[in-house]
Write a structure and sequence with these properties.
Strand content: 35-45%
Helix content: 10-25%
Number of helices: 2
Largest sheet: 12 strands, mixed
Shape: globular
Strand order of the largest sheet: 9-10-11-12-13-1-2-3-6-7-8-14
Radius of gyration: 21 Å
Length: about 250
């Protein structure tokens, strides 16, 4: 009886460790035309229960720009070169976006639900690489999306938060041509550990993150005015945070 107890202690962590190993890897070209056109490199590691999508700005992109627009506005744009992640735990039914908090200035995990998408399957096909892909459409947080997925690759994965289709998503774009993911490569099998990127991070809800972003924007006026002569007041109009989710 004692021997059986110790075997359980040993076997438990072993099974958990194996479950975190990836079955495959998919690489995507990720283009966001939300303000300027910015290219990202995206990679997802996946197995049945977990997936981890990492995206970071492509090396060829400019990280800092200053320009005067046609209407006379002075625009400053700075793109963060650090990686962001989307970690999906299908066992616990959770999605986490790991990124730097604008308000707190630290890396946080923003908790979302799983699955997030309800797709309408369309009887239309096209070839992507060597795969016959089927079409699906959905609406998600302010944008209408079209996805092309491969039934021959029966993995419930895709780029960023996108998933919940009968096959792997190889291409995805929105109706305004603001968001685009295109397949670069598929490697199956691919052995690598899928890390839980939420470990040790502060976890907040997506609703709390929206409140924090609003507070960050409201603080901009106060910070600028605190440095000016008390007889001068500045109010910045059209402050906004540009994101895939409107």
């Amino acid at each position: 009886m004692v021997r059986y107890f110790w075997m359980l202690l040993f076997l438990g962590p072993y099974v958990c460790s194996q479950d975190r190993m990836a079955d495959g890897k998919v690489e995507y070209d990720m283009i966001l035309a939300l303000d300027d056109i910015t290219r990202y490199e995206g990679v997802v590691l996946f197995n049945t229960n977990y997936s981890l999508f990492e995206f970071k700005i492509a090396k060829s992109e400019t990280l800092y720009t200053e320009e005067i627009s046609q209407n006379g506005n002075y625009n400053i744009s700075k793109t963060d070169s650090t990686s962001s992640y989307v970690y999906i735990d299908r066992i616990k039914k959770d999605t986490y976006e790991i990124q730097k908090s604008l308000l707190m200035g630290e890396i946080i995990a923003i908790k979302d639900n799983y699955p997030l998408f309800e797709w309408q399957l369309i009887e239309e096909t096209k070839i992507i690489g060597s795969y016959s892909c089927s079409k699906a459409i959905t609406t998600f947080r302010g944008r209408d999306y079209t996805a092309w997925y491969a039934n021959a690759l029966p993995y419930n994965i895709g780029p960023w938060k996108f998933n919940n289709l009968p096959g792997m998503i190889l291409e995805l774009y929105d109706s305004e041509n603001k968001v685009l993911f295109q397949l670069k490569s598929i490697t199956i099998p691919f052995e690598a550990k899928i890390e839980d990127k939420t470990m040790g991070l502060k976890i907040i809800s997506i609703e709390q993150n929206k409140k924090d972003n609003l507070e960050f924007l409201n603080n901009i006026d106060r910070k600028i005015n605190s440095k000016l002569n008390r007889n001068v007041t500045v109010k910045i109009s059209n402050k906004k945070i540009i994101s895939i989710e409107k």
